[in-house]
Predict the structure.
Amino acid sequence: MKNEIDKAFEITKKEKRPTLISFTVAGDNTSKKSFEILKSISNTIDIAEWGIAFNCPGADGPEIQNSSYRAIKNGITLDSTFSLIKKYKKLKNSKPLILMGYYQLIYNYGEKKFIKKCKNVGVAGLIVVDLPWPDNKSFAKLCKKNSICFVQLIAPTTTKKRMKLIVKDSHQLIYQVSNVNITGGKLKSTAKTILNNYKTIKSINPKKHVIIGFGITKDTIGNFKAANGLVVGSACCKVISNAIKKRQNPAKNLNIMLKDLKSKII
Amino acid sequence: MKLKRNIQLIDQHNNRGFYLDKFGGNFVAETAIKPIEDLSNLFEKLRKNKKFLKKRDKYFKYYLGGETPFFKLENLTKYLGGAEIWCKDVSAINGDAHKAYHATVNALICKESGKKFLAGDTGAGMFGKNLAMAAKEMKLKAKIFMGTKDISRQALNVSFMKKAGAEVVPVDTGSRTLVDAVSECMRFYVSNCQTTHLAVGSAIGANVFLKICAWSTSQISRELKSQVIKEFGKIPKLHLLNVVGGGSSAIGFWNEFIHYNKNHVKLTGIEAKYAAPLTTNAKIAILHGAAQYCLQDKNGQIADTHSISAGLDYPGVSPLHCMLKDTKRAKYTSCSDEEALNALKLIWKYENLRPSLEPAHAWAECIKIAPKLKKDEVIIVNNCGSGAKDAGIIKSKIGYYPK
């Protein structure tokens, strides 16, 4: 199953750098604005992760929560998110798009209907924060059938035995949660520990792309050049929040920030 | 769909933690999987460990004050006519509410796990207060998460928590009530799961949390069953009325009576009118780690609720209650703020009893049904919380609060 995601990793591998993955929330702070943001950063990033706003998130820090609450307040829904993705995927410079969300909204929408819709609008991958392995087996299978990459998560607390089973059931992409934290928290582990965990995952199956997320900022990103990919989430949401507060253009500001981050991993 | 015979209510789940294959489960972030699995193993070991059970019983007896009273409300029975009305006065416990049981057990488990920090959520402040007390007693550090709306309406309990040495963390997101406090507390746990024990304030959350809670509050029905037999020489035709927010007191009040025929021991749960997922046939949602009936909007966002009672202001409900509803073992109804307040007025007039706003909902149902029942039927209401914490709110609504 080779899809857009593999191609993105092929390119960055050739360029000998990690894949840069941005995370923003669909509909933050409005549908239109979130689309503009995505469009603006697409020449800088390699993969776009888009969050589905949920009002009872179990693993998000204050920055992503703020973005989510703003998006909900301004009326974002799953259907409007799908329309935006469809529009985005028609852009020439669009990047592979991974949707991230909590299971409740998918469950409420209907698993099958959700995946079908994802496929139709061109979603390349899915991360469901609170649907851990092995409960996600049937959902992941359904994704695979529809050529969507279901991204398994591995945390520092994941045992080696469990890790092997998760890697075995994973598709081409695995998300390594860098440290025991919610999103946006300050890194509690050293870069060395995080990279050691990374190597452990890679050693189980070197073919899988492993991306590291949680706590990646301009101060920490330079330590993780060895990884296949890096996700920057809360730092992006913070730039958007600040831009809104200062009445500046979040799309422009975020692109500047991401360019700066990219320069640190080249 | 039927309950399995001879299996404890909390153990009726499948190997993935689902009741009736659809309620509950473990919808948690990967980071929390191992700590939750460790806790689950520890709990299953402890509940079979005689030494631990002895310790629990000792704490229940000497620290929480032992068996709570069970008595007949002679005046109210006479006034309403019909069924005999009895009260299981759980509010007489040291700690003023049933939350004392699972707060104490959680602190004991925390101690056994070797962790030094306890994190818990609270709505009305009863769980927070009891957790703060238990932490102090067992030399642990407690962090209590509470919505800012609840902090202002249950100020008495907040100052108690602080005096007991707990840190009260204000939660200012969303509706600023219990639902947001639970979310924030669970996020704190994900970040600190290696050092902190999570004490969930009701029979909600991922599988092990609701099990620990219901296992602890079941003390209520263990006592009640022997008290009933002592009074009546048998189990008469019973109506067990209990308010349901998350559902921790009702599960504890009913647990020992679950396997009686439903015409012999009727179980009725009373929800707050605008926080009533069971009464309003709400759809299933995944909230706080578990699948449950839950109020939500058409997009699947968790809905706002309203109740005068902070302890009931919650959009979801224990997966155990979802199971009791679907198997038709329990019936659920709801009661408005006004009905609960009117019930209090009547109770005060006829009895020397000061229920909190939460059990006032159950008393309202009692007042409604008692006259329609026969004299040989017995209503027992779980008076699960003491009213002192609500004196201010009640006074502002009806102008007075009795001594």
About this structure: Chain B has a mean pLDDT of 97. Chain B touches chain A through 37 residues (CB under 8 Å). Chain B has two domains: 29-59+98-214, 66-96+218-398.
